[in-house]
Amino acid sequence: MNRDPRAILATGPLEPDHHVAVSPHHLASSAAVEIMASGGTAVDGAVCANAVLSVVAPETCGPGGDLFALVHAPEMRAPAALNSSGRAGSGVTAADIRAAGHTDLPPRGPWAITVPGAVDGWFALLDRFGRLAIDAVLAPAIELAENGFAVSAELADALERLRPVLAGQASAGELYPSGRIPLPGEVIRRPALASTLRAIVSEGRAGFYEGPVADGIVDAAQGAIRPDDLQVVQSEWIDPLGADVFGRRVWTIPPNSQGYMVPATLAIFERLGSFDDPADPAFQHALIEAYRVVAAERDQVVADPATAPVAADDLVDPERLSALAELVALDRAGVYEGLRDAPGGTAYLCTRDAAGMGVSYIQSNFMGIGSGRSAGATGVWLHNRGAGFTLIPGHPNEYAPGRRPLHTLSPTLWTDRGRLALLLGTRGGHYQPQLLAQIAADLHVGGLCPDDSQAFPRWVVHDLAPGSTSRVEYEPRFPRRTIAGLSERGHELVPAEGWMTGWGPVSIIRIEDDLRGSADPRVSTAAAVSRPAGAPSR
């Protein structure tokens, strides 16, 4: 995989003085530990990894998308939380879109493009917690974009699938050399994106939110976003949302993120009984139902903080969660409302430096490569997070200028009596809380180590029509007794085809009795990489 030979896979116990990075691509993980070994912090490493992923995995993330992060340092009792999700532009209202004949916002159209928040997030993170200059942090990504990288099987598959959407865009040429789909292992270059990253280094924020990229965003959004909208800084330091679960405190991003669903699901699961065996059907039934009873309300309560109908802390209020737990029957699947489809094109990564700083970091283009529209010939592909809005008049999540949409990104950071204990996250749209709840339960209740929790089979609850019963797709490695017990409880069960690459990759760094990093075996490029603090950098 062309890893740095001084970096090692973080598959076993590590000494506390190691730098660790886990991401969906080995080039990003290796670049992050190199940056930390060169004197950077875990935040420097995380932004570096994100920039590398922007180059080598554009089907998941990039500077044209949004960003959330949780940062914890040893002197902190609670993490710092960054919401760098962009807002709807000022050029269009929900009434305008309805007047054009739409009852739902078209997910691939110009109205779904909101102002990208990621680059504002890079500067916010580096200004507060970084130690290196941005030219050093972005250098690995620029080098890969200019000199080339080997196309992964995942990227090749995505480019084949998305070719009808992307082919006519001005930035498509560098992804489709000579107009064809690149083969896995073929080296391609992205000089246009390299030029954009260099502009960000030399001009700061203006290198993205002014000039060619800004012009490309305005053109792609066809009037929905105006130049003045790009002058509004999208990043905002906010209070994290925390809840006590399994004797620890789990932190996440409050709405407009759906992150609250992770602690809410786990707190309800904890209230439903004492479980210790992930292969026990009672364990899995309780976890499925705990998720479903929370998911039933998501679309009604997750919105821009200015319009959300329920205060963030109230979403995880113990009395409220106890009342939801009362709705769950341990002997049968319940009937709940359904969620709208929310497929994901997302990259989650986590870093922890030798000084003890940890970062839970997620960045996304949303649906694959997002809107399928590029910001001109700049190499920047624009997300379609506006698809998270509704057009229902008066709804708290109704599309409106300056408003942030419902977001699926759900990073988590866990502390034990104020000390960093776990960094955990994944891609996967509305699957994210489901996957994270399963991993967290396997780790904290099932007693599995990080690698075993990664390998343990997973399930996902698919979107349900209102009033439908539970429909669960599962990886067929579950024991027969688990599946039989779930069937007896009334779940409609659909076996998946082996290991499901879209159900992850989950990234884990655990810092408890020992330090471990763990990557998801479902995605071939995913890697957990570490290096001792004293190892020389290149």
Question: What this model shows, in words?
Answer:
There is one protein chain. This protein has 538 residues and is an alpha+beta fold. The chain has a domain at 239-343 and 427-512: Gamma-glutamyltranspeptidase, large (L) subunit, C-terminal domain (Serum Albumin, Chain A, Domain 1). It has 17 helices and 21 strands. The chain has helices at residues 26-37, 42-56, 94-99, 118-129, 134-147, 153-166, 191-203, 206-209, 211-221, 261-271, 281-295, 298-301, 312-315, 318-325, 432-444, 450-455, 480-488; strands at residues 8-9, 18-23, 66-72, 80-84, 149-150, 187-188, 236-238, 241-245, 248-252, 346-352, 358-364, 373-374, 381-382, 412-416, 419-425, 459-461, 471-474, 492-495, 507-511, 515-518, 527-532. The strands form 5 sheets. An 8-stranded antiparallel beta sheet has the order 1-21-2-10-11-3-4-7, with helices on one face. A 6-stranded antiparallel beta sheet has the order 8-9-14-15-19-20. A 3-stranded mixed beta sheet has the order 16-17-18, with helices on one face. A hairpin with a 5-residue loop joins strand 10 (346-352) and strand 11 (358-364). The two termini are 18 Å apart.
CATH class of the domain at 239-343 and 427-512: Mainly Alpha
The largest pleated sheet is described as: 8 strands, antiparallel
What is the CATH architecture descriptor of the domain at 239-343 and 427-512?
Orthogonal Bundle
CATH fold group of the domain at 239-343 and 427-512: Serum Albumin, Chain A, Domain 1
Shape: globular
How many helical stretches? 17
Strand order of the largest sheet: 1-21-2-10-11-3-4-7
